[in-house]
Design a protein that fits this description.
- By secondary structure, this protein is an alpha+beta fold.
- It folds into 3 domains: 60 residues, RNA-binding S4 domain (Structural Genomics Hypothetical 15.5 Kd Protein In mrcA-pckA Intergenic Region, Chain A, Roll); 93 residues, Pseudouridine synthase (2-Layer Sandwich); 125 residues, 2-Layer Sandwich (Pseudouridine synthase).
- Helix content is 21%, strand content 24%.
- It has 7 helices and 14 strands.
- The strands form 3 sheets. Strands 4, 5, 6, 7, 8, 11, 12, 13 and 14 form a 9-stranded mixed β-sheet that branches. The protein has a 3-stranded antiparallel β-sheet with strand order 1-3-2, with no helix packed on it.
- β4 and β5 form a beta hairpin.
- α6 packs antiparallel against α7.
- The radius of gyration is 21 Å and the shape is globular.
- The N terminus is likely disordered.
């Protein structure tokens, strides 16, 4: 297996990062590297603080310079693996799948295999790789713990056609989500440019500078007082868009480990604690599901709409709320 060439990084600790552990600081600053890789590099003395090796628990001060030279690691390659897929539709140009929770879309550091791409290469032996051999056929992504519908292009022509639909907003995607608190309006449009979080690099955020336009529409379907079940439509497709917009407006998605600061959710002081505790216990992931997908077939030009029923974990949480 070939190896990738290492690269050195230099970071200056900001005031906001003062007091952070060295290992946590590197995890935030290097989102493309796994925690395991960073821990291994700390153990191998590939990290320096002002030129000196420090333990992973070292507390940083503002103004210090951290230099990091990640170790050379095997190059990631996408290989075919016999992984079951829930196929909703398939022909020679288009595949629509219902992605389960805990499935990563494409290989990356920390997830070299067991991904949707590995499964696609097994089920679609003639899948064309296009310009990115690690993401063959991938037109749009879902987060690891988000379930639901994804369109996959089976050749380069279909990939270009579906990609254009995504850019000019002809591809429609509707989600079902359970969020904390009560929205002031039963239906509204959320905006705010989305970019990398300025301090926590593994997160995205609504930013004033350097972000990309993001538009999210929501409609409340059921109101449980301290939580609401919503339909959400994307007009743009930014990384973590729904999760970021909902959290930015103090209504994070229930069960979201990255953005779901439950104590800050509006109306949290009025919630029924017992019922909420049951809901949190059952919500082992973010309660977000890509329920509907509308597109134009890349060959026939036919308008097509696909739907996917709620997975059992979200149904279980909703049943508990309705019976509570």
């Amino acid at each position: 297996m070939s190896e990738s060439r290492g690269q050195s990084f230099s970071f200056e600790v900001t005031e906001a990062e003062a007091g952070a552990r060295l290992d946590a600081f590197l995890v935030d600053r290097c989102p493309d590297l796994s925690r395991t890789a960073i821990q291994e590099d700390l153990t191998a003395d590939r990290v320096r603080v002002e030129g000196r090796a420090r333990p992973k628990s070292f507390r940083l001060k503002a103004g210090l310079t951290v230099t990091y030279s990640p170790g050379v690691r095997p190059e990631i390659k996408a290989v075919a693996q016999d992984i079951p897929l829930d196929i909703v539709y398939q022909d020679d140009a288009l595949l629509v799948i219902n992605k389960p929770a805990d499935m990563v879309v494409h290989p990356a550091p920390g997830h070299p295999d067991g991904t949707l791409v590995n499964a696609l290469l097994w089920h679609c032996r003639d899948l064309q790789a296009g310009s990115d051999p690690l993401r063959p056929g991938i037109v749009h992504r879902l987060d690891r713990h988000t379930t639901g519908l994804m369109a996959v292009a089976l050749n380069d022509q279909a990939h270009a056609h579906l990609g254009d639909q995504l850019k000019d907003r002809r591809m429609g995607r509707a989600y079902k989500a359970l969020s904390w608190g009560q929205w002031k309006l039963d239906e509204d449009v959320l905006t705010g440019d989305i970019g990398r979080h300025p301090r926590q690099r593994q997160k995205m955020a609504v930013v004033e500078h350097g972000g990309r336009e993001a538009v999210t529409r929501y409609r409340v379907l059921e109101d449980f007082g301290f939580a609401q079940y919503c339909e959400v439509n994307l007009e743009t497709g930014r990384t973590h868009q729904i999760r970021v917009h909902f959290a930015h407006n103090a209504h994070p998605i229930v069960g979201d480990p990255l953005y779901g600061d439950d104590k800050r959710a509006k109306g949290i002081h009025n919630l029924d604690r017992l019922q909420a505790n049951v809901m949190v216990r059952d919500a082992s992931r973010q309660m977000l599901h890509a329920a509907s997908l509308h597109l134009i077939h890349p060959v026939s030009g036919q308008e097509m709409t696909f739907t996917a029923a709620l997975p059992t974990d979200i149904e279980r949480v909703l049943t508990g709320l309705r019976e509570g």
